[in-house]
Amino acid sequence: MSITSYALDLKPVRASRSFRHVWIGQTISRFGGQMSGFALMYLVWVATRSPALVGLIGVIQGLALLVFGLVGGHVADIANRKAILVASRVGQLVASCLIAALVLTGTWHLPALFVLTAVSAALSAFAAPADQTIAPRLLDPAQLPSGLALMRVSSQIAILTGPVIAGLVISTAGIGVCFVVDSVTFLAALWGISAVPRQAAQPERRPDDPEDPDDPEYTVKGLRATVEGARFLLGDKTLRSAALVDIAATVLALPIAVFPAINAERFGGSPHTLSLMLPAIGLGGVVAGLMSGKLTGYPHQGRIMLISCLCWGGAIAAFGLSTNLAVALSFLVIAGAADTCTVIARGSLVQLSTPDRLRGRVSSIDYLIGAGGPSLGAMRAGLVADVTSGAISCITGGTACAAVAIWMGLTSPNLRHWTIPRSAGQDPAE
């Protein structure tokens, strides 16, 4: 068997010019987002020395996701998705510029940073369902797992490089420069979005879908439409099980909020060692993504999700037990690889199990779980670390996550046996 069969499948970027532009733009923008995210976490930690307040960043983001993610899902199923993405990215650009201005001038304070972070998170959540529905319209169903793998690799490269570069920038040029870079990289995201054809960004419609905001029935129909998306996800055994697995992975085992605490407890508290932890997860994700050829070609994506969640939880628990920096970082690399496999499998499963007319609404709920879960996980990790320690927070959370993965594997045959539909042009569940 050739080793090239394991390599990342690049067919999606060769087959679709629009997908290629979107992918490049998102890759650059995510790098800036990781730099600013690390800078914000470090700024709050240095100012407060409180794991709970670092975790509060995640809570604020989670509340914004809860409100605007569901709204964005409904809008993505009735409005042009390209317009949604452009408007949201411009808003995030403005918010990032304001944060940069506050930090560079030394006039920042925590409430202002938290408010602007919430605004940016709300815009991101509003756009996320539209963002997630673009790839299934640009790629053949058989190419979608590979397309999602490419998206995941770009995300993990950003996680790998962003915090490291941010750490160097903070120590040399100042923390405000990280937010400036984030602002500039939003321009790349806008460039990528500009290549999406209008037809591919226009959702499929039904005659009874709400159209006119001035229609008295518009709000009622919109609420019913949102409920319809939730009912579809909760009523599908496979999607429901996948959601529960993802909740376990993010709420119970996400360690990022306690990285500063563990760094201070065990590794001297240096910003250099702190800047290695998140990139270690990114490194594992990049390696897994680059070797995802067999992964994306394997039809039973539900099994991959279950096994990967088990490995994620086990690796996080082992990280919490580690007192040697190299060993601890190694377990984070393993965790990052498992996380990437989970995300690719879940994305394929959700998008290919949902008809296009519901993709915005279902994607909004999936995004709410995938992005809101880490926010709750940050709060859980921070609170447990405040009461006990960062290490105990990781050990208990990782063990609980692994236990849930085993339980779901034993009790969810629909998830274990789910397979990818391979016929081009097929709209699943129709």
From TrEMBL:
GO terms for cellular component: plasma membrane. Residues 200-219 are annotated as: Disordered. InterPro entries: MFS_trans_sf, TM_effector. Gene3D superfamilies: MFS general substrate transporter like domains. Pfam families: MFS_3 (PF05977). It is a multi-pass membrane protein. The chain crosses the membrane at residues 51-71, 83-104, 241-262, 274-292, 304-321, 327-345, 390-410. CDD domains: MFS_MefA_like. Its main location: membrane. Keywords: Cell membrane, Membrane, Transmembrane, Transmembrane helix, Transport. It is found in: Cell inner membrane. This is MFS transporter.
